[in-house]
Write the structure tokens for this entry.
Amino acid sequence: MTADALTDVAGLRVGHATRAGDGWLTGTTVVLAPEGGAVAAVDVRGGGPGTKETDALDPRNLVQRAEAVVLTGGSAYGLDAASGVMAWLEERGRGVRVGPDPAHVVPVVPAACVFDLGRGGEFRARPDAATGRAAVEAAAAAEPGAPVPQGCVGAGTGAVVGLVKGGIGTASTVLESGITVAALVVANAAGSAMDPETGVLYGELFQGRVRYPEAEVHEAALRRLAESAARNAPPPLNTTLAVVATDAGLSKAQAQKLAGTAHDGIARAVRPVHLLSDGDTVFTLATDGRPLDAADPLALNDVLAAGADMVTRAIVRAVRAAEPVDGPGGAWPSYGELYGRP
């Protein structure tokens, strides 16, 4: 039995640190790799990214593995959460060895942020190193293969997709080869996840799981969305973040290809996408559990296709799992509140 989550890739753990109330609506999510790290790569396609240590993941560069990936709210300020994760890893001697003493390590912790500043009402309420440490401690305490909380948690706490509340979503699949491919997404997009003519989620149209809302339900939803939009300040920046993981044995170049094709999963579920006001970023982690078929030069194709599919499913889950927010920073109804649960 699987969790249908990123944690179905053996060795990966996920932890959230969530801050809501008293001006807060933000948080941090950490994906913790097995000790020794995982092969890591990244592909950035948004025009306004906020990232840390992404250059280290270039296949041309020295670093081969990452110990953790940090997804965080707080825009560029929130990248400080990665410092707390680095400190936790350093205390355990995990990282790139840079000196004669085993304690002389530099943990490689790539990070990316979403824009959620002020959504709880207080512009200065944003993740810091302590938030990152709380998230990595939560990941370390999680049981292997544990379900991953979804919706308004961690880096998805203050997320918004178009005019509705966004959040965290995750999904996984097992290929015929036995390879597991999974994704975890922070859905926080300037574009919309729903067709304005029908209210159907774009990602569900792609999946072929379409239940069209009644006309009067859709009309009532549009009125509610217009009321909320009139109240809220227009968000200047947004971002969809994803971690796509697999137990396939990938090189850094293959992992980077997976990160690139996984962006197609965002494009299927959000329109428009990869705008100047987005910072869309996809990380990949490969844990080397299962080798690709060396006799088949196209063996990677199934993994690439599945990565994009899992990102689409994860975005749908993020939007469906989100709860509405109505507070000093604005009001964002949830998709489920507007259209009902499936």
Q: What stands out?
A: The helical segments are 81-91, 129-141, 202-207, 215-231, 252-269, 300-321, 335-339. The chain has a mean pLDDT of 95. The chain is about 25% helix and 25% strand. The first helix runs from residue 81 to 91.
